[in-house]
Amino acid sequence: MTPTKPVIVIGHKNPDTDSICAAICYAKLKEKLTGNEYVPCRAGQVNGETKYVLERFGVEAPRLVDSLEPRLYDVQYRQVGGISPHLSLKRAWEYMRDNNIQTIPVLEEHNQLRGILTLGDVARFYMEDQDANALAEAKTSYRNIVDALSGEMVVGDIDSHFTQGKVVVAAANPDVMEDYIAEHDMVILGNRYESQLCSIEMKAGCIIVGLGSKVSRTICKLAAEANCAIIASPLDTYACSKVINQAVPVRHVMRTKGLITFRYDDLVSDVKAAVSKKRVRYFPILDSSGAYMGLISQRNLLDMEHQQVILVDHNEKDQAVDGIRSAEVVEVIDHHRIDAVETSNPIYFRNQPLGCTCTIVALMYQENQVEIDATTAGLLCSAILSDTLMFRSPTCTIIDQQVAKMLAAIAGIDITEHATAMFNAGSRLGDRSPDEIFHMDYKPYSAAGKSLAVAQVASVSQSELHRLRELMIPYLKNLLPNSGLDMLFLMLTNIIDETTELLFVGAGTEEIVRAAFHRDCEANSVVLPGVVSRKKQMMSPLIGAIENAAE
User: Which of 231, 260, 455, 529 has the smallest CB count inside 10 Å?
Assistant: First the structure.
């Protein structure tokens, strides 16, 4: 099935070069293979190393996505225009009928919402309002009255309003009429000259002459002198009395209190919770300035199309962009351990024990006989060099090295020079705060009921790493109490020496580190020669020690 909106291709939170480049290159491959639209995205800020790579090959950073939680702008809402508060109920009903809708917004200038009119409000007005003063109470315009009666204004100003009196049907003879016609009343009558004259003499505010009868010049003159309006209608007296209240303006019937509205960027989950027990069909959506945009129904919320997502360089829900449970994961391309990302349907899941996700992506280009251009090759090669620490990481395989060399040839880059420039760009940490440094490459984990996070900073400068050690230990101690985690770890990795100094804070961490790596620890740190890979050399012994300590 062809998706109706673009599929998002996205890596993990706190993205590294592999995560960003895999999203860009795999989205490009999918578009070439399917002809559909795939959009590379990122779940965090671009680090210095990745920024250098993107600028080196002239590629823009993917769009930042903070959350996949759907918002109202992701829902197909109904774009029904609003009506003026001065519009008659007759025209409002016709608008409802023509648009097959039972709720319409009432708008003022600049699309500002003033009220809501529903079919139930209209029915309630007709069934419950027996007041003959309704037209005057609503200050109904004569233009609306003429329109409701399908008539014409014979005497009077059509742009004036009927503001005093009641509506009277003159069915009796003139002698009786004198007893119930009061000053300013609106009188519905026929073609009897005596009844018309009597109404004018009783100081009626308006007379409605039905049956298409011609109004005499004398009556018109007398009415004008008495300041009495005359409306001629082709309808009979019964029909006039039946439809007259359709002239009432919408503002008299609409609801203005307790309106339930939503902003276009509200979370769908919040909206569903708010409307679940409401017996209202449609709810107005407003933009950031409060202007009306359209109407949304509970059915729209239920029929909402979920955002389709392809995960690259991760498959763990704790590392995924926020709101991943609200999206539909359709593919996973990864090289890490397999975790429980739940899907509603079978999906394409490719996981290989290689040093980099971009190695897998490059292989998929070759398998599908899709040409790799120089820019794509540069991005893929950069990611492999980054993830394998220029082939020094124990996660690196012969396949990673072979693919990287092939890509370097296409991109026209020298592997050693390019990798050194990348690592130097990523090592410029002097202007970054401790919090930024810790979260540059940060991943959460859980084991034996304990929650922990392991971050990594790689550099070619030992002096810079030593400076970080003095800076980051106090930072980790201050961060832990409010982090919601039990343990914090930071790997300070020297790429050239292939050594990591592991910093740690949290109850029992020293015992766990000692058990995991069989080395004596200093206060909050231990030096681990030959350890450069978080995935292959750090996490397995660390989690094993935590689980053993819990037994």
Answer: 529
CA angle 322, 328, 329 (to 5 degrees): 80
Q: What pLDDT, on the 0 to 100 scale, is given for residue 4?
A: 67
- Could you give phi then psi for residue 377, rounded to 5 degrees? -60, -40
Whether residue 154 contacts residue 126, with contact meaning beta carbons closer than 8 Å, is answered with no
What distance in Å separates the CA atoms of residue 52 and residue 476, rounded to the nearest whole number? 28
Mean predicted confidence (pLDDT) in 5-24:
95
Q: What is the pLDDT of residue 440?
A: 83
Q: Which two tokens stand for residue 100?
A: 């097959």
Contact 11/20 with Cβ under 8 angstroms?
yes
Q: Nearest CA to 89 among 33, 145, 151, 10? A: 145
Beta strand pairing call for 38-43 and 63-64: parallel
Looking at residue 326, its pLDDT comes to 86
Q: What is the pLDDT of residues 56-65, one digit of tens each?
A: 999 999 999 9
| Secondary structure class of 46 (helix, strand, coil) | coil
Lowest mean pLDDT among 20-34, 328-342, 381-395: 328-342
* CA separation for the pair 85, 108 (Å, rounded): 7
What whole-number distance in Å separates Cα of residue 370 and Cα of residue 425?
31
What are the two backbone dihedrals, phi and then psi, of residue 166, each rounded to the nearest 5 degrees?
-115, 170
Burial of residue 439, with CB atoms counted within 10 A of its CB: 0-12 exposed, 13-18 middle, 19 or more buried: middle
Rounded distance between C-alpha atoms, residue 317 and residue 340, angstroms: 7
pLDDT the model gives residue 1:
39
Angle value at C-alpha 96, between 91 and 98, nearest 5 degrees: 90
pLDDT digits (tens, 9 = 90+) for 458-468: 888 888 888 89
Q: What is the pTM of this model?
A: 0.65
Dihedral sign, CA of 95, 100, 103, 105? negative
**Spatial separation of the C-alpha atoms in residues 295 and 225, rounded to whole Å:** 50
Token readout for 234 is: 């082709």
Q: In terms of Cα–Cα distance, which of 535, 544, 491, 533 is closest to 351? A: 535
Tokens 């039990």 sit on residue: 486
Neighbours of 166 (CB within 10 A): 19
pLDDT band at 280 (very low <50, low <70, confident <90, very high): confident
The Cα–Cα gap between 43 and 437 comes to: 17
Residue 406: its H or E element = helix 398-411
Tell me which residue has tokens 């708010």.
Answer: 274
Q: Are 336 and 317 in contact (CB under 8 A)?
A: no
What is the spatial distance between Cα 194 and Cα 178, in angstroms, rounded to a whole number?
Answer: 12
Is 55 in contact with 61 (CB distance < 8 Å)?
Answer: no
Q: Where are the beta strands (DSSP E) in 448-486?
A: 450-459
Query: What letter represents residue 23's amino acid?
Result: A
